[in-house]
Amino acid sequence: MANDGEVKLFGTWASPFAFRVELALKLKGVQYEYIQEDLTDKSSDLLKYNPVHKKVPVLVHRGRPIAESQVILEYIDETWKTDYPLLPQDPYERAMARFWARFIDEKFLSTSWQAACSSSEAEREKLIEEALGYLKVLEEQQHKRLLGGNDTIGFLEICSSFVAYWIIVIQEAAGVDLLTESKFPNLWKWAVEFQGCPAIKQKLPLPEKDRLVAFFSAMIEKIKRYK
Amino acid sequence: MAGGGEVKLLGLWASPYVMRVQIALSIKSVSHQVLEQNLEEKSQLLIQSNPVYKRVPVLIHGDNISICESPVIVQYIDEVWSSSGPAILPSDPYDRAIARFWAAYLNDKWAASLRAIAAADNEEAKEAAVEKAAEGLALLEGEFTRSSCGRHNGKGFFGGDCIGYLDIMLGCFLGWVRLIEKLDLVVLVDESTTPGLAGWAERFCSDPAVRDFMPETGKLAEYAKKFFPKYKNPKMLL
């Protein structure tokens, strides 16, 4: 087990971003201390370590903080090099992994989250259309095996855990239909495989669905109320 | 792979994002062809090589490779031409993480506030956008001071002696920053509010890898009129 200096992870059990980082640490065999944050009452440490965004996850290694899940993943990959590479070696493959991870977060994730939290019917419909468009892009790419199978949980697959699991939870919590088997069979198949993937199950089981749905229902409700 | 295959850049002289790629190619002395794009009438090549976003920049390398999104392209260039010229990303993983963190901040949050100043059609909206942009610059001023302290006594670049990743990610906006300051009569980067960045901006703009790509203010003003209606107003002095 690699334990190259003290490692702390500030996260919450429900966060898809914190999950990414924790999964990466587990896959690399890095020992760490997990600090569970209450996002309604953020710790002074969290605010100190991420003053710009005040969000989880934050990785603190040897007293130095890093924020933003994709940035943290690359840091983990570059710091603990011996086991389990997260990014491919080839520059083109690396560029593809980074491109699609950006696409998932900047386009799909942000639009689908906005759709879930929208309190305007018209706006929500528009956002859903947009999110479905992004899923269509991913579906076409998945036809060409963009996202790896059970044995290849790398940087892109870790980031895609949002598509494999969290979106399914969020769409149920918000009462919207985004990723469905009928519309996106390739992605759905991959999502089911991902959820059942032994490597993930053994290292870091996904948070329990009912609990997550309840969590996001409450969160979405709260956001809608304050709009 | 390194150096193998022709390099083409689908670009646009006014785009800060394209400028990032040009600076990176320049740092690495990569000979390439620039194909200026017309975003109002997108070329087949642009649509084929960037079907997801249909926008510039796109780096085409050899016959089969197209790379899109400027942060992805710049890192690709750094990795492929690693033995040519100075490194663009720092070598230490923590420094790399910091550079990437601020690059994400600039792309996800700050660029929009800059754009919002140009798009603001009333004083209130403009002030709100300026405040946001200024907040971001204050953070970057802090980062510049932190990173350059004790290294260059407040000189140099975010990356050290040479221009690096974060310099490129922020510096590419300086043409538009100067234009907006002039047309909107606001102050964003200057000696009194951001002394570190003020000096850095001058050094960045005069760097050999950057000089040729920084758009001329007058030309940029003409271009800006197309996208920000308020700049067509003849009352604005240039």
UniProtKB/TrEMBL annotation, chain A:
<protein>
    <recommendedName>
        <fullName>Glutathione S-transferase</fullName>
        <ecNumber>2.5.1.18</ecNumber>
    </recommendedName>
</protein>
<dbReference type="Pfam" id="PF02798">
    <property type="entry name" value="GST_N"/>
</dbReference>
<dbReference type="InterPro" id="IPR040079">
    <property type="entry name" value="Glutathione_S-Trfase"/>
</dbReference>
<dbReference type="GO" id="GO:0006749">
    <property type="term" value="P:glutathione metabolic process"/>
</dbReference>
<dbReference type="GO" id="GO:0009407">
    <property type="term" value="P:toxin catabolic process"/>
</dbReference>
<comment type="function">
    <text>Is involved in the conjugation of reduced glutathione to a wide number of exogenous and endogenous hydrophobic electrophiles.</text>
</comment>
<keyword id="KW-0216">Detoxification</keyword>
<dbReference type="InterPro" id="IPR004045">
    <property type="entry name" value="Glutathione_S-Trfase_N"/>
</dbReference>
<dbReference type="InterPro" id="IPR045073">
    <property type="entry name" value="Omega/Tau-like"/>
</dbReference>
<dbReference type="InterPro" id="IPR036249">
    <property type="entry name" value="Thioredoxin-like_sf"/>
</dbReference>
<dbReference type="InterPro" id="IPR036282">
    <property type="entry name" value="Glutathione-S-Trfase_C_sf"/>
</dbReference>
<feature type="domain" description="GST C-terminal">
    <location>
        <begin position="90"/>
        <end position="216"/>
    </location>
</feature>
<keyword id="KW-0963">Cytoplasm</keyword>
<keyword id="KW-0808">Transferase</keyword>
<dbReference type="InterPro" id="IPR045074">
    <property type="entry name" value="GST_C_Tau"/>
</dbReference>
<feature type="domain" description="GST N-terminal">
    <location>
        <begin position="5"/>
        <end position="84"/>
    </location>
</feature>
<dbReference type="GO" id="GO:0004364">
    <property type="term" value="F:glutathione transferase activity"/>
</dbReference>
<comment type="similarity">
    <text>Belongs to the GST superfamily. Tau family.</text>
</comment>
<dbReference type="GO" id="GO:0005829">
    <property type="term" value="C:cytosol"/>
</dbReference>
<dbReference type="InterPro" id="IPR010987">
    <property type="entry name" value="Glutathione-S-Trfase_C-like"/>
</dbReference>
From TrEMBL, chain B:
<dbReference type="GO" id="GO:0006749">
    <property type="term" value="P:glutathione metabolic process"/>
</dbReference>
<dbReference type="InterPro" id="IPR045073">
    <property type="entry name" value="Omega/Tau-like"/>
</dbReference>
<protein>
    <recommendedName>
        <fullName>Glutathione S-transferase</fullName>
        <ecNumber>2.5.1.18</ecNumber>
    </recommendedName>
</protein>
<keyword id="KW-0963">Cytoplasm</keyword>
<dbReference type="InterPro" id="IPR045074">
    <property type="entry name" value="GST_C_Tau"/>
</dbReference>
<dbReference type="InterPro" id="IPR010987">
    <property type="entry name" value="Glutathione-S-Trfase_C-like"/>
</dbReference>
<dbReference type="Pfam" id="PF02798">
    <property type="entry name" value="GST_N"/>
</dbReference>
<keyword id="KW-0216">Detoxification</keyword>
<dbReference type="GO" id="GO:0005829">
    <property type="term" value="C:cytosol"/>
</dbReference>
<comment type="function">
    <text>Is involved in the conjugation of reduced glutathione to a wide number of exogenous and endogenous hydrophobic electrophiles.</text>
</comment>
<feature type="domain" description="GST N-terminal">
    <location>
        <begin position="5"/>
        <end position="85"/>
    </location>
</feature>
<keyword id="KW-0808">Transferase</keyword>
<dbReference type="InterPro" id="IPR036282">
    <property type="entry name" value="Glutathione-S-Trfase_C_sf"/>
</dbReference>
<feature type="domain" description="GST C-terminal">
    <location>
        <begin position="92"/>
        <end position="227"/>
    </location>
</feature>
<dbReference type="InterPro" id="IPR040079">
    <property type="entry name" value="Glutathione_S-Trfase"/>
</dbReference>
<dbReference type="InterPro" id="IPR036249">
    <property type="entry name" value="Thioredoxin-like_sf"/>
</dbReference>
<dbReference type="Pfam" id="PF13410">
    <property type="entry name" value="GST_C_2"/>
</dbReference>
<dbReference type="InterPro" id="IPR004045">
    <property type="entry name" value="Glutathione_S-Trfase_N"/>
</dbReference>
<comment type="similarity">
    <text>Belongs to the GST superfamily. Tau family.</text>
</comment>
<dbReference type="GO" id="GO:0009407">
    <property type="term" value="P:toxin catabolic process"/>
</dbReference>
<dbReference type="GO" id="GO:0004364">
    <property type="term" value="F:glutathione transferase activity"/>
</dbReference>
